Amino acid sequence: MKQFISVHDVTDINALVKKALAYKANPLTDKNLGVNKRIGLLFLNPSLRTRLSTQVAAQNLGMEAIVFNVDKEGWALEFEEGAIMSGNKAEHIKDAAPVLGSYFDILCIRTFPSLKNREDDYSELYISQFIKYCGVPVISLESATLHPLQSLTDIITMTEHAPAHKPKVVLTWAPHVKTLPQCVANSFAQWVNAWDGKAEFVITHPEDYELSEQFTKGATITHNQDEALKDADFVYVKNWSTFNDYGKIYANDPKWMLTEEKLKLTNNAKVLHCLPVRRNVELSDEVLDSANSIVTQEAANRVWAAQAVISEILQRGE
Ligand code: CP
After folding, report:
1. What separation in Å is there between the alpha carbon of 164 and the centre of ligand 1?
2. Is 3.40.50.1370 the CATH classification of the domain at 7-146+302-314?
3. Where exactly are the structural domains of the chain?
4. What sequence ranges are listed for the domain Aspartate/ornithine carbamoyltransferase carbamoyl-P binding (predicted)?
5. Centre of ligand 1 from the C-alpha of residue 110, in Å
6. Domain 7-146+302-314 matches domain 162-293 at the CATH topology level
7. What ipTM is given for this predicted complex?
8. Cross-strand partners of 108
9. Whose CA is nearest to atom 3 of ligand 1?
10. Atom 1, ligand 1: residue with shortest CA distance
11. Does the predicted TM-score (pTM) go above 0.95?
12. Which superfamily is assigned to 162-293 in CATH?
């Protein structure tokens, strides 16, 4: 694996899941793979799970992991080519990225979208510029449109709970108080659609919350949440802002929150959410605190997803 930006960087999803689960069973089996190598985790936005799970994963492989909160501790970065830097941006990515590349063997970066300009966000300008100029393999810790480490974790967690039959997987929109990116939903859709016909995939959301077809194509899409939830084996709950009239909150109907009542429509579904979650806004306490919720296991699996990906990149360089 040369980089990990989307599902397109993965040749065999199930093989990567198998590798992650092998690390879960034996975390230190490759503890010397990354000895004398360094990984940089660069955050332009906040994180709990991604930051710590990737650090733990790298350390399990013997790497030194260094975290740099670029947004708080670094110079403000300019990403536009040819920019006249007379504003508040102190350093161009063209200058910063190769320097960072000289310090690290692998670089990881988190860059959220602006949610102001769809064209800019969906061109993935920030992470693309970073890849272009840093000169070492890059792992996305969540970019403007995708969150691949989260999606790999979601597939790992569903694999652990796979029923004997082909599972029905439902991605449902949920209300929220803030304007959130489409990354997690886009990425989940992209991975489930690429998952080798392993699931019947349904996406449900209110009108006006359509996601980009480049990620959802292949899924059944409905505005009827109850119909979607019927007989579901897995329910993935997530809020996202509008894609078409970009970055807006339209209707924020609390009836879309996943409750115990709604869960009764499902095949005793396991419930996933990437976290952080707004309790009693996106998901009720009763659902989150029930045996159906596998969100903690899902978050714990972030370590094994990251470890499998870092390992693939290190092994390519051997
Ligand atoms: N799910 C996830 O990416 O969590 P953090 O934002 O805390 O890293």
Report:
1. 30
2. yes
3. 7-146+302-314, 162-293
4. 2-160
5. 10
6. yes
7. 0.99
8. 41, 139
9. 50
10. 274
11. yes
12. Aspartate/ornithine carbamoyltransferase (3.40.50.1370)
